[in-house]
Amino acid sequence: MHAAVPAGKIRAAPRVQMFKKILIANRGEIAVRIIRACHEMGIATVAVYSDVDRAALHVRKSDEAYFIGPAAASESYLRIDKIIDAAKRSGAEAIHPGYGFLSENAKFAQACADAGLKFIGPSPHSMEMMGSKTRARQEMEKAAVPFVPGTSRGLVSPEEAEEVAERIGYPVMLKAAAGGGGKGMRLVHTRKELGSALESAQSEAQRSFGDSEIYVEKAIVNPRHIEMQILADEHGNTVWLGERECSIQRRHQKVLEESPSSIVDPEMRRRMGEVAVKVAQAASYTNAGTIEFLVDQQKNFYFLEMNTRLQVEHPVTELTTGLDLVHLQIRIAAGEKLPLAQSDVEIRGHAIECRIYAEDPDNNYFPSPGKITLLLSPSGPGIRCDSGMYEGWNVPMDYDPLLAKLIGYGSDRQQAIMRLQRALGEYFVAGIKTNISLFQRILGDADFQLGKLDTGYLDRLLAKDTQARTSRAAEHGASEKTVTLDTIAAIAAGLFAVLDPASASTKNGSVGSADSTASTSVPSNWKQKGRSEGLR
Amino acid sequence: MVYEVVVTKKAGDKTGNETGGKSHRLELENTAEGWACRFDGQPILIDAVIARRDVLSLLIDGRAYEIKREQTTTDLHMWVGNSCFAVELRDPRSLRSRQKAAGNEKGPRQIVAPMPGRIVRLLVAENSSVEAGQGIVVVEAMKMQNEIKSPKKGVIKRISAIPGAAVNPGDILAVVE
Q1: Band of the pLDDT at A207, cuts 50, 70, 90?
Q2: Which of A329, A480, B107, B164 is most buried, judged by most C-beta within 10 A?
Q3: What is the average pLDDT across B129-154?
Q4: A514 pLDDT exceeds 60?
Q5: How many CA atoms are closer than 13 Å to the CA of A175, on its beta-carbon side?
Q6: Do residues A255 and A342 lie in contact, with contact meaning Cβ atoms separated by under 8 Å?
Q7: CATH dotted code for B109-176
Q8: Mutation to test the A interface, candidates B23, B28, B30, B87, most A Cβ within 10 Å
Q9: From the list A362, A486, A509, which residue is nearest B97 (CB)?
Q10: A466 pLDDT band (50/70/90 cuts)?
């Protein structure tokens, strides 16, 4: 889309031996993303796949593909032995782990090293240090990195929890040392709630991570979640590449990310970037990494954790810096020096990413796997679509529901929003439910357009009365047309039956509606369930 | 061509709850100028082209519409922009269609899987009495467990769901009568 770093500034690196073949230990859109980068660099790719992924896009796009087991991730994409075996059989020299699955597993990185394979990511040592949140806090304390007040060690007793909470002041947040995704996390407002919250957090942490260690920190009220991308080569050079605003979350999962953040000015960006570089250096970090910060309403930022992998939302940084992070990851892993210095990094324009999930926005965002019967993908100026799906593909029920990422780029935030809104209108997926309509709501929301965001934003938006809203399309229909949209729908149904009777055949005089005795009850069940869940 | 069409607005664009459900009479006739259509008697001239399977382009008095068709396990959907309509199309000459229009809520009701998943457990046994809305089977998909409930008060005549088994949309899980 643009190159923020003028071509001349990217220095030609001294020649190192580049990989000839890379195995991608992942699936879905990120596997496709990495395969594309490899092909751009003239590197052959090896995909791995489970029982249900034989026809998946990453297998279709790859030069080679190896079967690694049943659908359950624990028996396929999480099996270190099978993935190493596939790498050896194929003669791959390096493994890119993507995100999720084994990407932050130090044992996997070690197993790669032991097998003579280059792991495209940091060392097992750095991963271990950052994998434990309490250990990371201890290291950051030493390096004088600002973090949220609290304990840097696991709590030994409820009494200790009370003492610390009293000292730092309520509300406090209990967190699992091994945690992630909101598991083992509890917000505690008063001393009275502390005991039972600690107990339930411990048992949830034990169940989720096999580790009941809990620490406590001061709860930041209505924080923003802002993270800083870094790149570090294996020769001691580390640069920061600007922040990503990730405050729009649901159930602690990011939904929409953008760069730059509306509240970060160049001075704050530089300070965050420098802290991020300090964090990376304290961990002897190499390759691409992300330092997450909580930012309070006074714009103070606190170290939260480091993600030792490529992030889902890396494209927004690619668009605003003009860099290809996956290319650079591979070049760093091959031993090249970073081809740019900090002074070469220039943030230009604005990028926003929407995570397209297979879930039903009308039914409490329940997962919606199944066959994609129709897929119309957006394109045009400022639009990038990183997708792992195709028409006719069966979205399996066994994995994360992320289907694709739609990223809009513009010279400023407003243009990025306008382009995304236009592209979302072009995007159409049938056969399964997706959250595409959610992004139309977010992008059209006044608070979003003003950049008034915090981690509670999306819950508040979803709680707003849906009855009161009127879609632009409906208003349009009522005011300007004599033919209403439901009339159009009725006429279209008739014309489809005549002109394109393909899938919805006219059997027994009933066109396309399934046997009502079998079906009428079912959608209402799901809806009911969703509504009752929504009330919790 | 004469059809009876029932259109129900779905909450697809979050404008509110499902509305509509009215029955309309639709006549379509292919003429030299395009499709001469009568909708509840109102004449409308339409230029219609199938752009590709499941995508219909309409021009009505200069206005352009693109309508997408989606067949789910339970409904036929017409998407007009962000708006989704469930449509039932009947040929009024058909006997079965007339029977159906008359309604058939009595008798056994099948409980089917609305999407692919895996049966986690059964919540009731065969021959047990259930209330409307009572959970029958727990199905898991994408790491979320969902209870499938009885559409009506009655007795569970048959349970075909087997714990641990994979199910596809439309598979019969149980029958309640």
Answers
A1: confident
A2: A329
A3: 84
A4: no
A5: 25
A6: no
A7: 2.40.50.100
A8: B87
A9: A509
A10: low
